[in-house]
Amino acid sequence: MAWGWSRTPESPHRTGSAVDLWPLDREGRVFFDPQTRNRIAAALRKAAADLGVPTCWGGRFRGFKDMDRSHFELAAP
Ligand SMILES: [Zn+2]
Fold first, then answer.
1. How far is the CA of 10 from the centre of ligand 1 (A)?
2. What pLDDT shows up at residue 49?
3. How far is the CA of 6 from the centre of ligand 1 (A)?
4. Domain range summary for the chain, segments of one domain joined by +
5. Each residue of 12-36: pLDDT tens digit?
6. Distance 18 CA to ligand 1 centre (A)
7. Neighbouring residues of 58: CB distance < 8 A, sequence distance ≥ 6
């Protein structure tokens, strides 16, 4: 919210059950390449499966206006 990237005060980010992951370029700037973001999602999905942690990915949220590919959240057990 401080960065203006979110307008949602009621968020799983606030309870610590969600995280947004962005790739950075060599200068540390956010890199908006969708392919790179999909690679992060694939890596996180694999790690979650290996560890047996149920997660949901913002890239699959239904009804979300602009799929939130950077968002990863713990799923309800
Ligand atoms: Zn998020």
1. 11
2. 94
3. 8
4. 17-74
5. 888 889 998 999 999 999 988 888 9
6. 6
7. 20, 64, 67, 68, 69, 70, 71, 72, 73
Taking the model in full, what pTM does it have?
0.72
Q: Ligand 1: distance of its center to the CA of 26 in Å?
A: 23
* Average pLDDT score over the chain: 83
CA–centroid distance, residue 12 to ligand 1 (Å): 8
Q: Are 54 and 41 in contact (CB under 8 A)?
A: no
Q: How far is CA 8 from CA 11, 22, 27, 56, in A?
A: 6, 19, 29, 18
CA separation for the pair 68, 60 (Å, rounded): 8
**pLDDT at residue 76, as a whole number:** 77
Q: 4 CA to middle of ligand 1, Å?
A: 12
